[in-house]
Design a protein that fits this description.
The protein is of the alpha+beta class. It has a single domain, classed as 3-Layer(aba) Sandwich (Aminopeptidase). Helix content is about 30%, strand content about 25%. The strands form seven sheets. It has a seven-stranded mixed sheet with strand order 1-14-9-2-3-4-15, sandwiched between helices. A hairpin with a 6-residue loop joins strand 3 and strand 4. About 45% of the residues are buried.
Amino acid sequence: MGVVLIASLSWLGLGQVSGQISRIDVFGALKNRPEKTSTALNYLVVGSDSREGLTKAQIKSLRVGSTAVAAGGRSDTMLLVHISKSRDAAYVVSIPRDTLVTIPAHKSFDGKFDIPAAPGKINAAFAFGGAPLLIQTIEAKTNLKIDHYIEVSFAGFTGIVDALGGIQVCSKVAINDPKSHLIMSAGSHILGGIEALKYVRTRDFDGRGDIGRMERQQQFVSAVLRKATSSGILLNPIKLTKFFNATISTVKMDSGVNKSDLLTLAKQMRNLSAGNLRTLTVPLSDPNASAPGIGSVVIWDPTLATDLWTRIRNDEALIETIKPSPKATTKPVMVDKFKTKTGAENPCASTK
């Protein structure tokens, strides 16, 4: 879903559709927030499991229950999207929904009770206090200020995929997941919106849980970007307008963004290419930990995760170049401490 942000930043300068975005206030009540150290931008992109906007046929196909079941929505996916101050590079960092965090003190839903700060899973912050509490939790955990917020529902995701004519995915093994209701043979497939949603939500078929799912989501984001750019959508105002007219009504965005800001940013972002988009996961020390009273949790690597957020906060490169001594004959070495198996590569490149 991070590509939704990347594409929208190139599009939102088109006045024909920008007015259709649903605006929400997520920053108004936040206090004691981290300071910014550069003009780079940080977007929090959340995939909500809200059924709002789905047809009855789509709900039946997904087997996710009625729209009332998840009226408030839960956070299925969290992506931190960092856009460089020069607007020519972006990092998309997946945040595991089971990350162990301290959820700040907050009010109960009815506003009658004060809930003290306590350990919990990061997606519980969204469930307890929506986007504001989630942002507050992430900022406290990363010391990184979130500038803007985008929320994409089930309907928004399926509309995006369908508007692109489906997305190619590749699986080395057959998938039969009774929870996501995805049945797919091994090999390459072009998935429409509903089947693609099942694909990015499946998490139990391979025993890797949320970590395996995040890798598939990152590959899917890269596939969406390749499809959008190869179709000429991002650089074609007419195609772009049609694309977002089919999807934008189900996307929510913070109320702090105005049209002139987005137009300026869209012009700057023309230098961003697929090769300058980096997808990765927060470095982990224990993806299968357990916390008393909470259950299974994911724990970040205290050194590498801190280094990652510091580099992003300072808008620094994630890849270091180590130069040899003046007498050495070897070439400089590129060191990528945050390298994962996912990224902008085509997951079906080697599949015939």
